[in-house]
Amino acid sequence: MTTFLSLLQGVLVVSLVLLGVSALLVVVRLLRGPTGLDRLVALDVLVAEFLCGLVAYAALSGDSALVPVVVAISLVGFLGSTTVARFVRRGTGR
């Protein structure tokens, strides 16, 4: 049982490291663009990666107090994405 837990902890640590590397690449896309929509999609992906990191950290530490934080951030991210999509659609003349 302890080998399974240590294996699970190793997988969670590796996933956190990969999420960090991916977040750095997304930040590069966020800064370089080239369009505003590219930046908005990169920001949405960054929020999703942040949420995945929080969930992985909560699983690693065994702390369930982060669950309401994850739910709140995901709702705000969803509302922001849909608002921007409606704004962009309205601006294209459709």
UniProtKB/TrEMBL annotation:
Its main location: membrane. It comes from the Bacteria. InterPro entries: MrpF/PhaF-like (IPR007208). It is a multi-pass membrane protein. This is Multisubunit sodium/proton antiporter MrpF subunit. It holds the Pfam family MrpF_PhaF. Keywords: Cell membrane, Membrane, Transmembrane, Transmembrane helix, Transport. The chain crosses the membrane at residues 6-28, 40-60, 66-88. Belongs to the CPA3 antiporters (TC 2.A.63) subunit F family. PANTHER family: NA(+)/H(+) ANTIPORTER SUBUNIT F1 (PTHR34702), NA(+)_H(+) ANTIPORTER SUBUNIT F (PTHR34702:SF1). It comes from Actinomycetospora chlora. It is found in: Cell membrane.
